[in-house]
Amino acid sequence: xxxxxxxxxxxxxxxxxxxxxxxxxxxxxxxxxxxxxxxxxxxxxxxxxxxxxxxxxxxxxxxxxxxxxxxxxxxxxxxxxxxxxxxxxxxxxxxxxxxxxxxxxxxxxxxxxxxxxxxxxxxxxxxxxxxxxxxxxxxxxxxxxxxxxxxxxxxxxxxxxxxxxxxxxxxxxxxxxxx
Length: 179
What we know:
The chain is mainly alpha-helical. It has six helices and three strands; from the N terminus they run E-E-E-H-H-H-H-H-H.
């Protein structure tokens, strides 16, 4: 089965260089909009996942959280807006979304409508970039998860005493932020 590779198609372990840009089968404008939204959502969700997996690293995950938690939270809101955009362009009403969440339609619409419009517009501009970035995020996730899978317990054993030693280093967290 053919699957998109980094710079071409991959058939098993054999890479075939691209001689043209892959285009999905002819789509209606509405289908193209959803396709572009889905590529942006894939990129954003994989970016969020790769950022979140860094928090699981025993040696520096908490430092990562200290430095980048606001970025991770913003990424979460971006993923939420893209997911809602896909649902909205697939025919799900604001009422149905709000009912599912157990909040009022007005509250949900007020909080998300402008972001949904903005991410929809942005997703239409660079769909190929979203696909490329999604593959980059997959590669990052694979490496970090593989490292965690091989070394998690050993890293936990080494990290616990180190984190405890930091209690005796006043202001260590400000030094982390400055690095």
